[in-house]
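Researcher: Please predict.
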Amino acid sequence: MPSIDWSDPIWSTLLPLPEVDFFEGQHGLLPQSLPPVPQSDSPSALDVDHPHHNCTLSISIIQPPASPTLPSSPVVGAVGPLAGLLSERGNNSSWAARNPTRPVIPTRSKGNALMEAQKASRAIKSAKRKEEENTLNESIKTYLEEQGKKLREIALKHNVSEDHIKNLVGYHTHYKKMRAPQLKNALVHTKAQEVNGGMYQLTVDSHVLTQTGSKRLHTSLTSQSIMLKISGSRANNIAAARDVLATTDRVRQELDGLRDRCGTYATLFVVGGHVNDQAQATWYTTDDSSHFWEDILNLVLDDVARQYEQWSCSKGQNIIERDSLENMQSQVAKYILNGLRRCQMTNKSNVTMNYPNYAKAIVITYGVMLDGWPTDIPFTSPWNIHTVSEMRTLCDALKTGRCAWQKMSAAEVDKYKANIDKRQAAGEVVGKPRKKRSDAGKSRKR
């Protein structure tokens, strides 16, 4: 698909002012024509006068050298060579450094201090801009009042609703009911990515954005920004610690609200995963939940949080190591075994899982069944599954409860047993037959 054609005059009508970029906070939009850029390896400062507004853009442009060099900071939404180099050198200073294959959430850098003359100049421009905006808003307000009056007159004349008239004339507002980028901000962001050497380019079917094209552009930018904020790694330990603190506060509020609405009890533990993490280990309980830990389990929550932190720091795993095949195999095996010991009705603590003879040794013997096993994964021991995607699917099913142990009634057990006997009578081998002794049929000394 072709890229956005920025030479089309339609963009000059959609982007009349230099705006703050919606995602990255990069100020201003470059005019269509720029002065020639000096070809050198050193930074060059350019002052570009905007052709339509009384403002000047100060631009620092660096011409890349012949051989590639390492960037000074991670690239948004991509993995730079610096992250790989730090990983090769064993850098574990932050979560982002320990996970070089994941995108990094950019930090907000502070600009240089302004001189008094610059402050005064910006104050004058700001006051003038606000005055012009107020005048424009008053004009638009007057126009909208006249338009609304005319629409009401048409609606009364033809006996239809005012909303129906608005839909017919293509009434549209830039204000959203949810947090989403406007078309102008989406285009500014796309242009900023191209000018600043972004790692990805957004394309549309035509250089003139229709309603479908603008919606696709909005959706693409929104999903990229949201996914980066949700699953991206914090660039340094300070940013990670602040994120942990803010998120923990929100979780506490949710737990308190859940207690007020439903009367639940809850205990929350939050610890860091590495010795270099600056997030402090903390815990939180609703009401008197801490008494359960102290009276029933004889545990002090401070000691539990400290031991929990020691355990997590001793592992020191990054996100790839946590989702490794061996780790997920161990998790799945524990989920299945612990669920079997809780569900089986004999209350035996030494029950073990028997995958080859599951029908006879588990279902018929204990009257329980593992329901919800993914149909595209063969029923076998987790240690015999060697595909990461299959293990992740099975692990997620056990975590969410889609796959869980279910108790069976006596009638269900009898029906299941009769089905097994019928299959065996037909010559089918159910389970794994026990290996025959090498001395079978021979007399043995007692």
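Model: The mean pLDDT is 75.
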